[in-house]
Write a structure and sequence with these properties.
Blueprint lengths: L1 H4 L6 E7 L4 E6 L6 H16 L9 E6 L2 E5 L2 E2 L30 E2 L9
Antiparallel strand pairs: 1-2, 3-4, 3-6, 4-5
Length: 117
């Protein structure tokens, strides 16, 4: 994650790791109190997830950054981005016509969760 966002690994804080599916909650730490830099990192994270350029090592099923849903059921739902299918599932059947909801995770073939504050 840190390498993909161009930040030092010490700036990513893993908060929780859950058994079963892969679920990881993490925060991006703002060590310099530089809100503009943190906003840029958040925008980079949103773009990387919403374009399918960020590889977590497993298919992304759901993604949430700072309370905003980006991917739902394997389909990008981020406003301003094409609704591409990141992961074909039996429930999305390859359809990219999904609407956003609320929630809070980046989930993978296990699940992995993300939030950036």
């Amino acid at each position: 994650m840190a390498a993909a966002l161009g930040i030092h690994a010490s700036e990513v804080k893993v908060v929780n790791v859950y058994e079963g599916s892969l679920i990881i909650n993490y925060y991006i730490i703002n060590t310099d109190d530089d809100n503009a830099a943190l906003q840029k990192v958040q925008e980079s994270q949103i773009e990387a997830i919403s374009t399918g350029k960020l590889n977590f090592g497993a298919p992304i099923l759901d993604a949430n950054v700072a309370g905003d849903d980006l991917v739902e059921d394997g389909v990008v739902i981020t406003p301003g981005y094409d609704p591409i299918i990141l992961t074909k599932t039996t429930s999305n059947k390859g359809s990219s016509s999904r609407s956003g909801g609320s929630g809070g995770s980046i989930s993978s073939g296990g699940r992995s969760s993300s939030s950036s504050d």
